[in-house]
Write a structure and sequence with these properties.
The protein is elongated. The protein contains five helices and five strands. The strands form two sheets. The chain has a three-stranded parallel β-sheet. A two-stranded parallel ribbon has the order 1-3. Helix 5 links the parallel strand 4 and strand 5. By secondary structure, it is α/β, with parallel strands linked by helices. 20% of the residues lie in helices and 10% in strands.
Length: 142
């Protein structure tokens, strides 16, 4: 085997710091001399005593607060016209018909005003206006 026949290795080995004076990277181990960065570990986000960037940004209210983030979805009585008369309406029925999405199951829905002519049994939160219209059409609210 000759020198020009050796296989070239491209992968470099990790620099071994702090392995004695003979290694060329002993004593301070490439960190310079003294100071905070030469000593223990400090986070990469540290800016030198100034107020950090993540604390300078405005707060996003309600993003992590479930009480503020989840709001009930209003559904008009006119959306309920797709059902047949004397049908029990609950979350599963609305999901089957495609009136609400799966994410609305978590936050909830509320039936609001509109026009209705069918007698329906509603098992959901209802506004006063919608309740009077459902009862006038011959339906019930539970």
């Amino acid at each position: 085997m000759k020198l020009h026949e050796l296989i070239k290795v491209k992968a470099k080995l990790k620099k071994r710091l702090g392995r004695g004076l003979g290694s060329g990277k002993g004593k301070t181990g490439g960190r310079g001399t003294k100071g905070q960065k030469a000593r223990g570990k400090i986070p990469a986000s540290f800016i030198g005593g100034t107020l950090p960037l993540y604390k300078r940004l405005p707060l996003k209210r309600g993003k992590g607060n479930p009480k503020l983030a989840l709001t009930t979805r209003p559904i008009s009585l006119t959306h309920l016209q797709v059902f047949k008369g004397k049908t029990q309406i609950d979350m599963e029925q609305l999901l089957k018909e495609g009136i609400i999405e799966k994410k609305d199951l978590k936050s909830g829905v509320k039936i609001t005003g509109g026009e209705i002519k069918l007698p329906l049994t509603v098992k959901l939160p209802v506004s006063k206006n919608a309740k009077s219209k459902i009862i006038a059409a011959g339906g019930t609210v539970e």
